[in-house]
Write a structure and sequence with these properties.
The chain is of the alpha+beta class and 97 residues long. It has helices at 4-9, 25-34, 38-41, 58-64, and strands spanning 70-73, 89-92. It has a two-stranded parallel ribbon with strand order 1-2.
């Protein structure tokens, strides 16, 4: 059974975390999934313009370790957070309703 106390014991936190600049959705998500700054991954926009970040994404590393990843999203540019071959399953829909 899960409890808030058990969840807290398994969680992680950092007092050194910083925001990504520019604070655009896609730049922030790519920084989270690739563990590099926008200066490194080069994405400072919110349009669907695929670009190689030069750093593997979290889902790419999971795939390389024979782990499975799946995603459901309704904003096209988020497809850039990992290589298409790395997802076990992904679903993109204009609306999720």
């Amino acid at each position: 059974m899960s409890s808030p106390r058990m969840s807290l014991a398994r969680s992680a936190a950092s007092l050194q975390a910083t925001a990504v600049v520019p604070s655009r959705t896609l730049a922030c998500h790519l920084s989270l999934f690739h563990s590099v700054s926008p200066e490194r991954h080069g994405v400072v926009w919110n349009q669907d313009r695929p670009q190689d970040s030069g750093a593997p994404a979290l889902v790419d590393l999971a795939h390389a370790a024979d782990l499975r990843s799946a995603a459901v999203f309704n904003w096209g540019p988020l497809r850039q957070i990992g290589g298409p071959e790395s997802w076990q399953a992904s679903l993109f829909r204009e609306t999720l309703l």
